[in-house]
Design brief:
about 325 residues; Quinone Oxidoreductase, Chain A, domain 1; Rossmann fold; seven-stranded mixed beta sheet; six-stranded parallel beta sheet; globular; binds NADPH dihydro-nicotinamide-adenine-dinucleotide phosphate
Length: about 325
């Protein structure tokens, strides 16, 4: 089978399409024919060697497809079932082995493409808005990179919860998408903290969801109201340098958290509840998933390049 291998740590050029043996279906695992692969920012961090396995390894963790075979001790799934997953290393491939305990059944009414496009970023947006900081009606909420994969979903979920969204994007096309997702105000990154103050009558935001990191972190702190919450959930512009906690006091007894999806889906019940709620919203057309780009598997390199170059909106998929 074909798979995209990270041959060493580095830029997009280290990705190579190779013929590999199909993965083993060990106990507790499913062998899945992959129909759609999710491209995520973490795939870039792993390729660069910021974290994750040591090369060589097959890239990717997310996708959806049909179970081809099940290993010993698997009772919940059988051949022919449609499943999706967010934590199966080696997902940039025609077949992948998925831990049955981490597989999510895909309901009728949700295509495999939509499942792969929505699961990781949808559950992320879900836990950010419902658990990390529970958005309440009329909360003033800043969402950075609101036209991105997580951003568009988070904007819609915050609106479902009654929050008021002030979104940042880098260009007009992205601003239009953020507005269509429900953002009440869309602004650029330059001087955004001051704009947030103006737009909140001087008060500041209750919460800033910041997946951009290095470039926005300092201003995100100043955009908050006293006792507001900065949710730093990613580092698309680079990691935030070391930080003196006294700055939280200086800006008004702020809260800072750096959450991760794996801790919010650690129990199988959490994984399934979040996934079903996201899939349910999609099936009921309350949550719109924008697939911003589809690439053949052997163009994974181009997909990652486009994502890192800020050229994309919504979710990118690879199609084996
Ligand atoms: P996006 O589709 O949001 O792409 C990243 C966006 O970030 C770009 O489109 C761009 O939007 C913005 N951006 C701002 N500055 C830069 C920069 N210097 N370089 C590149 N992009 C920049 O990606 P994802 O939806 O996949 O991920 C968004 C963030 O969420 C990432 O940081 C990711 O790591 C994080 N994440 C965290 C999870 C968690 O559980 N903690 C889980 C999933 C994702 P614009 O041009 O409008 O600025």
């Amino acid at each position: 089978m074909r798979a995209v291998v990270v041959t060493r740590s580095g830029g997009p050029e280290v990705l190579e399409v190779r013929d590999q043996p199909a993965p083993e279906v060990g106990p507790g695992r499913l062998l899945v024919d992959v129909e759609a692969v999710g491209v995520n920012y973490r795939d870039i961090y792993e390729r660069e060697g910021r974290y994750g396995p040591s090369p060589p390894f097959v890239a990717g963790v997310e996708g959806a497809g049909t179970v081809a075979a099940v290993g010993a001790d698997v009772s919940d799934f059988g051949a022919g079932d449609r499943v999706a997953w967010v934590a199966a290393p080696g997902s940039y491939a025609e077949q992948v082995a998925v831990d049955a305990a981490r597989a999510v059944p895909v309901p009728e009414g949700v295509s495999s493409e939509l499942a792969a496009a929505a699961l990781l970023q949808g559950m992320t947006a879900h836990y950010l808005a419902t658990s990390t900081y529970r958005v309440r009606p009329d909360d003033e909420v800043v969402i950075h990179a609101a036209a991105g994969g997580v951003g568009l979903l988070l904007t819609q979920i915050v609106k479902l919860r009654g929050g008021r969204v002030i979104a940042t994007t880098s260009n007009e096309e992205k601003a239009a998408l953020a507005r269509r997702a429900g953002a009440d105000e869309v602004i650029g990154y330059d001087g955004f903290a001051e704009r947030v103050r103006e737009l909140t009558g001087g008060a500041g935001a209750a919460v800033v969801y910041d997946g951009v990191g290095k470039a926005t972190f300092d201003e995100s702190l100043t955009a908050l109201r006293p006792r507001g919450t900065l949710v730093l959930f990613g580092a698309a512009s680079g990691p935030v340098p070391p930080f003196d906690p006294m700055r939280l006091e200086g800006h008004g007894s702020l809260f800072l958290t750096r959450p991760s999806l794996r801790h919010y889906t650690a129990e199988r019940s959490d994984l399934l509840e979040r996934a079903y709620e996201v899939f349910g919203w999609i099936a009921e057309r309350r949550l719109d998933v924008l697939i911003g780009g589809r690439y053949p598997l052997d163009q994974a390199r181009r997909g990652q390049e486009d994502l890192a170059a800020r050229k994309t909106t919504g979710k990118l998929l690879l199609l084996p």
